[in-house]
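Onboarding guide, step 5: your first structure request.
Type a short instruction followed by the sequence, for example:

Predict the 3D structure of this protein.
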Amino acid sequence: MVSAGPATESDVREILRSVVDPDLPFLSIEDIAILRDVHLDEGGAVRVSITPTYSGCPAMDVITEDIVAVLTGAGFVDVAVDVTYAPAWTTDWLSDEAREKLAANRIAPPGPIGVVDEVLCPACSSHDVRTVSEFGSTACKSIMVCTTCREPFDHFKAI
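The system replies with structure tokens like these:
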């Protein structure tokens, strides 16, 4: 049941645009394609499906809590969040806007799956970069440094 609030799945998706990935707070769960499906039944119950960026992603609990909080805050009293693993999330699902936001926040976006990733420095666009560590602040990022401008940066791995 809904005590107050939106009555369409489109409205629910609009509310969910405020839920961000806690590791990449400039990206909504829609931008990063974690949000897979929204279903609103006739009784006002909301069921949201999300897919983690990788199976052990620790941010999923926070994202689930944020989804429930934002929807209950909008007046929904029956909210369920399902975590789905199939199909597996891929960086190919990232929107162009998400890739632009990554670069604007000094994180080199991933290239397409199956293609040798050409990493450009997000500060100066140089191709002269090297990997410092395969693992960065999260398992989905590596740490790189530009040999031209000497700036360190994260690279979002293609998966």
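Each response can be followed by summary notes, for example: The radius of gyration is 18 Å.
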